[in-house]
């Protein structure tokens, strides 16, 4: 039976996106400020602005890295995601189910890249705007409860981030089913939700080489050690408060 007769274009596109990226991931991206415009009847993504200047995270992350990371890498994920969505629309219009299936990997990779980076920019803040200040309140208590201490959390994230082979992300997440904090890694541009449908990202650290190589060369552990000086715990705490009470 033709795909088109089973699902409308809009519904099928929605199903594919939810299966590949996860509704939580898209919601997280939307919450992180991802702008959207309409193109050919579908939502085309546009690059979200940063809440700070490219050089504002120096000396932890250089302005050159931030500019290239945002304007080139994140933009490329968006460009390729939008292109894949247009191709998906055409494939659905032609009832070409093989093409529909083939496009899923591009949608997952590039859509995941957009979701993850939209969260990442929000996870960072210049020190003069509170970046690096330790978490307080309920998130601080939860970290002590689940990891023993804030220092123990840092140690765990740094160890898992350094050990991740190839490219990917290391996350602090909330498992909403068990109301528990977790540290997880994902490969490539897989969003955290791919590790479990009840997982919500609180913050993610990009450990692709493009996130640190121009400054830290091959020494990923030094990048991980320093990035805590610009983590925006105020934002992370707000996400935790919202998600843990929902
Ligand atoms: Fe990146």
Automatic annotation (TrEMBL):
<dbReference type="GO" id="GO:0030145">
    <property type="term" value="F:manganese ion binding"/>
</dbReference>
<comment type="similarity">
    <text>Belongs to the iron/manganese superoxide dismutase family.</text>
</comment>
<keyword id="KW-0479">Metal-binding</keyword>
<feature type="domain" description="Manganese/iron superoxide dismutase C-terminal">
    <location>
        <begin position="136"/>
        <end position="238"/>
    </location>
</feature>
<feature type="binding site">
    <location>
        <position position="117"/>
    </location>
    <ligand>
        <name>Mn(2+)</name>
    </ligand>
</feature>
<keyword id="KW-0560">Oxidoreductase</keyword>
<dbReference type="InterPro" id="IPR036324">
    <property type="entry name" value="Mn/Fe_SOD_N_sf"/>
</dbReference>
<dbReference type="InterPro" id="IPR001189">
    <property type="entry name" value="Mn/Fe_SOD"/>
</dbReference>
<comment type="subunit">
    <text>Homotetramer.</text>
</comment>
<comment type="function">
    <text>Destroys radicals which are normally produced within the cells and which are toxic to biological systems.</text>
</comment>
<dbReference type="InterPro" id="IPR019832">
    <property type="entry name" value="Mn/Fe_SOD_C"/>
</dbReference>
<keyword id="KW-0464">Manganese</keyword>
<dbReference type="GO" id="GO:0004784">
    <property type="term" value="F:superoxide dismutase activity"/>
</dbReference>
<dbReference type="Pfam" id="PF02777">
    <property type="entry name" value="Sod_Fe_C"/>
</dbReference>
<comment type="function">
    <text>Destroys superoxide anion radicals which are normally produced within the cells and which are toxic to biological systems.</text>
</comment>
<dbReference type="InterPro" id="IPR019831">
    <property type="entry name" value="Mn/Fe_SOD_N"/>
</dbReference>
<dbReference type="Pfam" id="PF00081">
    <property type="entry name" value="Sod_Fe_N"/>
</dbReference>
<feature type="binding site">
    <location>
        <position position="206"/>
    </location>
    <ligand>
        <name>Mn(2+)</name>
    </ligand>
</feature>
<keyword id="KW-0496">Mitochondrion</keyword>
<dbReference type="InterPro" id="IPR036314">
    <property type="entry name" value="SOD_C_sf"/>
</dbReference>
<feature type="binding site">
    <location>
        <position position="69"/>
    </location>
    <ligand>
        <name>Mn(2+)</name>
    </ligand>
</feature>
<dbReference type="InterPro" id="IPR050265">
    <property type="entry name" value="Fe/Mn_Superoxide_Dismutase"/>
</dbReference>
<protein>
    <recommendedName>
        <fullName>Superoxide dismutase</fullName>
        <ecNumber>1.15.1.1</ecNumber>
    </recommendedName>
</protein>
<feature type="binding site">
    <location>
        <position position="210"/>
    </location>
    <ligand>
        <name>Mn(2+)</name>
    </ligand>
</feature>
<feature type="domain" description="Manganese/iron superoxide dismutase N-terminal">
    <location>
        <begin position="46"/>
        <end position="125"/>
    </location>
</feature>
<dbReference type="GO" id="GO:0005759">
    <property type="term" value="C:mitochondrial matrix"/>
</dbReference>
<dbReference type="InterPro" id="IPR019833">
    <property type="entry name" value="Mn/Fe_SOD_BS"/>
</dbReference>
């Amino acid at each position: 039976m033709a795909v088109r007769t089973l699902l409308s274009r809009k519904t099928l596109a929605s199903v594919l996106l939810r299966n590949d990226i996860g509704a939580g991931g898209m919601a997280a991206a939307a919450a992180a400020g991802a702008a959207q415009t309409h193109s050919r009847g579908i939502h085309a993504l546009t690059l979200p602005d940063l809440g700070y200047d490219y050089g504002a995270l120096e000396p932890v992350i250089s302005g050159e890295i931030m500019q290239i990371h945002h304007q080139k890498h994140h933009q490329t994920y968006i460009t390729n995601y939008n292109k894949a969505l247009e191709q998906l629309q055409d494939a659905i219009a032609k009832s070409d189910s093989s093409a529909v299936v083939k496009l899923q990997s591009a949608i997952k990779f590039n859509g995941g890249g957009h979701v993850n980076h939209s969260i990442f920019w929000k996870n960072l803040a210049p020190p003069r705007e509170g970046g690096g200040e330790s978490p307080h309140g309920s998130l601080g208590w939860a970290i002590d409860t689940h990891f023993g201490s804030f220092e123990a959390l840092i140690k765990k994230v740094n160890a898992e981030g350094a050990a991740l082979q190839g490219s990917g992300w290391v996350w602090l997440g909330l498992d909403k089913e068990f109301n528990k904090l977790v540290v997880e890694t994902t490969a490539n541009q897989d969003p955290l939700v791919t590790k479990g449908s009840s997982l919500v990202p609180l913050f993610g650290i990009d450990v692709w080489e493009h996130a640190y190589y121009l400054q830290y060369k091959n020494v990923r552990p030094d990048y991980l050690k320093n990035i805590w000086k610009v983590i925006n715990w105020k934002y992370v705490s707000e996400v935790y408060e919202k998600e843990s009470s929902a």
